[in-house]
Specification:
The chain has 16 helices and no strands. With 344 residues, the chain is mostly helical. Helix 5 (103-112) crosses helix 9 (178-201). The longest helix has 24 residues, at 178-201. It is flat and about 75 Å long. The N and C termini lie far apart (77 Å).
Length: 344
Amino acid sequence: MRMKDRPCLKERTYAIEEKFLSPYACKSADTRGRRVTETPCTMRTDFQRDRDRIIYCKSFRRLKNKTQVFFSPEGDHYITRLTHTLDVAQIARSIARALSLNEDLTEAIALGHDLGHTPFGHSGERILNNLSPNGFCHNEQSLRVVDVLEKDGEGLNLTYEVRDGILNHTKSGNPSTLEGKCVSVADRIAYINHDLDDAFRAGILKESDVPESIREVLGNSSRERINTAVYSIFETSDGKNFVRMDNEVEKASEELRAFMFEKVYITGSAKSEEKKAERMLTAMYEYFTKHTDKLPQTYANLMSQYSKEQVVCDYLSSMTDRYAVYMFNKIFVPKGWTFIDESN
């Protein structure tokens, strides 16, 4: 069957959404569209296309070698930025399904929400924020990745709703769709619980270290805590124009988040290597701002539109942990000499 003769399968999706989704859901047919108009796909909705574009972009693949909390962990089971992203997508879709919201839009936002994250986790973000006169926030950089940096400077041309959800997924953000709000709350649920599991795995904390007041409300395992949070959101938000937990679960979740900052994020083994990361990123930032001719061509091409400080941050934030170490060694660590044996 030729392309022009194929039935418009996405119309079936539109009909299903109209029949079954909440009146507060963002339906695929109602998207505000893309910044650059494109020929629509007959099979996939625009949100489904956005999901596919993110899955296949280079920035998404690099997430597998970017730190979540622990720098370049030796074990195979520590959370990386990629596994965190998949966790967020799973939790966000569970929330969206429970509330009869648009799962395709929710998943697209979740898969793209951390594309702009730096190497070395939030430490890298703080370092670049201090170095750049423009500042640096990973949510803004994630939007820049999909708008500008992907496809050699062309960007992915995503829909307004996905871009809005990516930009506003942080705790201080205010997404314009309930699907974006699902991702925002799922992000916090995921990183608190799975970072806690990593802290147990690394021997930094024991389950008994978690205050009893938190465990009584949320549960004694990652599975229990996530289920408690998701079910609380369902009970509180079903049929309503908001996405949030009940007060008791919200309070216990904030207490767990504060506990993690005190015991893991700000102090402890996860931070012991931060000074090294700071020296590396600072040295490379200064090097590339002075030697912009050493930037890869894709980034050098951006110099006609953006400041060198912005472009250098684009390049450094795109690096994986191990590529940042490799590039630092390539620039600053002398190579060994090959000696000729003159004893004969």
